[in-house]
Amino acid sequence: MLTWVIRRDLLLAVRRQADVLTTLFFFIIVVSLFPLGVGPEMNTLRIMAPGIVWVAALLASMLSLGRMFSNDYLDGTLEQILLSPTSLSLLVLGKMLSHWLITGVPLVLMAPVLGIQYDLPFSALVVLTLSLLLGTPILSLIGAIGAALTLGLRGGGVLVSLLVLPLYIPVLIFGAGAVEASTAGLGFEAHFSLLGAFLLVSLVFAPWATAASLRISME
Amino acid sequence: MSINWYKYASPASFYFLAGRMIPYFSIAAIVLLIVGLYIGFFVAPTDFQQGEAYRIIFIHVPAAWMSMFLYVVMAFWAGIGLAFNTRLSSMMATAIAPTGAMFTFIALWTGAWWGKPMWGTWWVWDARLTSELILFFLYIGFMSLQAAIDDPRRADKAGAIIALVGVVNIPIIYFSVQWWNTLHQGASVSIAQSPKMATAMLAGMLIMALAVWMYSIAMILMRARTIILERERHTAWVAELKGITR
Predict the structure, then answer these.
(1) How far apart are CA B184 and CA B182, in angstroms?
(2) Residues 6 or more apart from B53 whose CB is under 8 A from it?
(3) What is the per-residue DSSP string for A7-66?
(4) What sign does the CA torsion over A203, A204, A210, A211 have?
(5) What is the pLDDT of residue B93?
(6) Residue B230: C-alpha distances to residues A116, B225, B227 (Å)
(7) Where are the coiled-coil regions (chain A) (predicted)?
(8) CA distance A24 to B94
(9) Does residue B82 register a pLDDT over 70?
(10) In the beta sheet, which residues pair with residue B128?
């Protein structure tokens, strides 16, 4: 059932490629705006790069949360999913994973290119990409709770940012922190361990909380 | 003597109980506030390091304590409401949120007033300040989610989930911010090491903390009463209250 949900969502994404590309280009544009705002001084930019890329990833992932359930909600698929005898948490986990595959993975793949724009050294590029690889699934997992709670509400898109962004803060701190620690010559393993811990905790609790939220929203 | 707690879980009987309790808590809040502020501003000695400006802590610290405590209480009642489907618990959670948010705001605001004469800056990215700011965001998120949902029962339950997710995240956020702060070798000032306090200072602070407690209870009960009336406006007992017969 898990693979069925993922395959279906990926197929929908392939049929509607614009959705995937908008998120990716949003990410690229936000990252490219910062040098225009703070000036082209490379030494400043190099220091700011991890934070900028991470904040942009947070925003991009958050903006695409609306699509996680809303299309299924509008065409009635979500009701059928709720009625299905399979565990709702499992199906929701599938939706979360496909959200990550559709929006998270392109960001991870694009991050090294954007890092080059900021003149990051090769080792920092590797750490940045790996930290995003470890961190972006957490964004999809936690974000799903917000997406489920705001389903069908007026102003849902802005509301979801209020709910979800404060919860993203630990991921931002340790994701960007890993890159900074590695450029400063400190180890980044501790940051990765913590990101991994967040990933495991949210993998356990987020599907459950999202399933409960969906049931509340669909009552 | 045993109290039938279930009786007061009904909004109708709680409404009258709260109405009877509000005057006591309000009077206690006013008296303690006057005594606490008097001690704080006139009795407590001037701090030899911080001068007179330190006196803002008599408002700042109790507000900060209360802001954190109220979030936990709010999440507790919201969780009870979600688990046992008791309407009054959820109403309490809704009633607590604005008071908690207000204390968070007061703590941030008075913190800035304290910071300016002490550190020469309105704001530092200290771990405590940052986590208090995030706590403020969590309150705002809870309130705006409830405000966006028209159906009160759905608002209760959705709010409960976000409050519980928030309360699980608070320690994570707190420690993340703390480690983030130490990693950056932080702002050179830290409010963690507080100097030893004179007895009058401590007494003033504790009395102010009590005053803030009493104020919160009175305020929350008042707001809970309003929420009860608003939600139960179609019931017979509210109609009787107004002397309106249907």
Answers:
(1) 5
(2) B114, B117, B118
(3) HHHHHHHHHTHHHHHHHHHHHHHHHHHHHHHH-S-HHHHHHHHHHHHHHHHHHHHHHTTH
(4) positive
(5) 94
(6) 58, 9, 5
(7) none
(8) 38
(9) yes
(10) none
* Mean confidence (pLDDT) of chain A: 90
pLDDT digits (tens, 9 = 90+) for B36-45: 999 888 887 7
Question: What ipTM score was computed for the predicted complex, to two decimals?
Answer: 0.88
In one-letter notation, the amino acid at residue B232 is E
Tokens linked to B57: 């802590």
- Neighbouring C-beta atoms of residue A44, cutoff 10 Å: 14
Rounded mean pLDDT, A183-212: 91
Instruction: Retrieve residue B177's tokens.
Output: 């911010």
Chain B CB contacts of A166 under 8 Å are: 134, 137-138, 141, 166, 169, 173
Q: What average pLDDT does this structure show over B221-234?
A: 90
A82 contact partners, CB below 8 Å, separation of at least 6: A88, A214, A215, A218
Distance from CA of B113 to the nearest CA of A (A): 25
Q: Each residue of A29-77: pLDDT tens digit?
A: 999 999 999 888 888 888 899 999 999 999 999 989 988 898 888 888 8
> Which chain B residues touch A163 with a CB distance below 8 Å?
141, 145, 162
B191 pLDDT tier (thresholds 50, 70, 90): low
Q: Helix or strand or coil: residue B20?
A: helix
Comparing CB atoms, the residue among A174, A180, A212 nearest residue B161 is A212
Query: Can you give the pLDDT at residue B187?
Result: 45
Average pLDDT over residues A22-32: 93
Domain boundaries, chain A: 2-218
Angle at B116 between CA B113 and CA B119, to 5 degrees: 130
Contact residues on chain B for A213, CB-CB shorter than 8 A: 158, 161
Kindly state whether A50 is in contact with chain B, defined as any CB-CB distance less than 8 angstroms: no
Q: What are phi and psi for residue B47, nearest 5 degrees?
A: -75, 135
Q: Average pLDDT of chain B?
A: 85
Q: Do A162 and B165 touch (CB under 8 A)?
A: no
Residues in A 128-157 with any Cβ partner in B closer than 8 A: 145-146, 149-150, 153-156
Q: Identify the CA nearest to B33 among candidates B213, B157, B194, B160.
A: B213
- Indicate whether B196 pLDDT > 70: no
How far away is chain B from the Cα of A16, in angstroms, using its nearest Cα? Answer: 30
Of B8, B214, B23, B7, the closest CA to residue B92 belongs to B8
Q: Contact at 8 Å (CB) between B15 and B225? A: yes
